[in-house]
Amino acid sequence: MFEIRSAPSLISMPLLLLLLAFAALPLTGCESTPRANGGLSQAVHDYESGRYTVAHRRAVESMRGASGVERDKAAYVAGMSAHRFGDKSEADLRFNAAINSQDPIIAGRAKAMLGQIRMDQGRPREAVTLFEEAARQLDGTDAMQARQYARLARNEAGITRNDDNSNPLPPGSGFALQIGAFQNRRHADRAAEQARDLAHRDGLGTVRIVPRIDQRGRELYVVQLGEFGSRDEASRVRQRVGRLDYIVAPLASATR
Fold first, then answer.
1. CATH classification (class only), 5-156
2. Domain ranges of the chain
3. How far is the C-alpha of 192 from the C-alpha of 199, rounded, in Å?
4. Number of H helices, E strands in the chain
5. Mean pLDDT in the chain?
6. 165-250, which class in CATH?
7. What φ, ψ does residue 164 adopt, rounded to 5°?
8. Which residues, 6+ apart, have CB-to-CB distance to 203 below 8 Å?
9. 206 exposed, middle or buried (CB, 10 Å; 0-12, 13-18, 19+)?
10. What is the pLDDT averaged over residues 50-60?
11. What would the pLDDT profile of 213-229 be if each residue is shown by its tens digit?
């Protein structure tokens, strides 16, 4: 689920991209040596350039020369890089190193990434806890989208909660890549249009906007892409096309 962007003297790491792209939030409060900071900046640049193996190596090296929040940032970059080149065990290790950061943004984003990994591992109950903790540490759109992930994880685990603001998605005959769930139809249309370009380019199938009714009687628009026979198949496609911001979810059906 997640991009990393660099900025002069700051590092911005948007994590969850469930409904709309997250705004890049600067992770400040760094305490590091110039050498460690330079190495981390280079790791972010390598990540942006698609050199994930090199980015991972630089980030791990930066961890050794840093402390505090700066070390947590390096661990997060290392985790993101490992996730990109498909080493989930290494990504798990690095995100776990960042979840106790004194910076709640880093901690929350690392927990959300671990939640995605737990979903891919078929461990949705653990994912629920991670997403809910992430939502408490993040704010704004980030927190809202973390809560949406938590609802999907609860649905996958068969857990119901009275305060969910949308009905759980009923199990379908397969899985899809879920771009988001929107209360505003125009936002859903925009997300679907962007996803259609990807679907056409990579032959991923149909993009669907599925209307649903939440518990308050309001309409919700679920945007999904493709149709896959198993969670593993959908996860492999998500990894192949590099859209870690999409979540693997059961096929949605309309409610009225």
1. mainly alpha
2. 5-156, 165-250
3. 10
4. 9, 6
5. 77
6. alpha beta
7. -65, 135
8. none
9. exposed
10. 94
11. 766 677 888 898 888 88
